[in-house]
Structure prediction request, 325 residues.
Amino acid sequence: MPAAEIPFTARRFSERAGAVLASVSRVIDGKPDAVRGALVCLLAEGHLLIEDVPGVGKTMLARALAASTDATVRRIQFTPDLLPGDVTGVSVYNPVDRDFEFKPGAIFAQIVIADEINRSSPKTQSALLEAMEERQVTVDGRTHALPHPFLVVATQNPLEMEGTYALPEAQRDRFMMRLSMGYPDAAAEAQMLRQRDNVNPLTALTPVIDAADIMGMIAWARAVHVSPAVEQYAVALAQATRNDPGLHLGASPRATLQLVRAAKVWAALDGREFVIPDDLTDLLVPVFAHRLLPARGVHRAGAQPVEATLRQIVERVRVPLGARV
Prediction:
């Protein structure tokens, strides 16, 4: 859609985005990168995976983003006994009409919080595959469309934690970004103790944008310009992961596409209507790392092997001359 046809301006986009970032940051102290990443996933029409140890605010971030938008929200607590039908819905026989009636599952919402997704079985995890990619679910041969916008924010504990099931590669590839919260610094943790002793900050949040605003912002970000040289650079980065001896599995074409989509929103949040190479490199680890598998025996001191490999790729892959600003 040409920029002139979009009922949004750069200023309006910035105001709406700033309102969401400020709202979520009232709950998530000292984690601006995680908050910004969550907003990028929403506006780039992707899905977000938040992975970290218990108690660092994974679910709080998902709930704060949902509370800041006037959109329908459903939360699914993933447990070992959760069934695929609990997620997608089931067909129930109606004796009055003598026909089967579809009862929608928890996935039918604009923002779906999939809490502790890796505590359910791979069969239940796979119930999200069609919904996340095609924004629809098929039950008993009938296809049911999901609402727009549609965002899955999933939280998971590290695989070393007891009672977890690793997400299959196909499932991980559906997530645009994976973020880690990390522990707060001393000042943020002390402030949390003072402010949250008797009050839950989530209760004070009110929506600052509605679904129409979200769709307008999505359209505006989608129109951000990506030059052929920047596209070439994105492809070169993806190709480098597929040829690196330190990686057993490289980035998929879907990963390349989502890197560029996320970079468009990243640029729009910076007030630009064009993508620069730094947008791609800023997002490379959160967009690519969870999709890649290290080669056996690869260890790099002081860093996760995949993240270290991606940083080396950024240093190695040359930026095309036409992509520089």
About this structure: The first helix runs from residue 10 to 25. DSSP finds 13 helices and 13 strands in the chain. The chain has two domains: 3-219, 225-320.
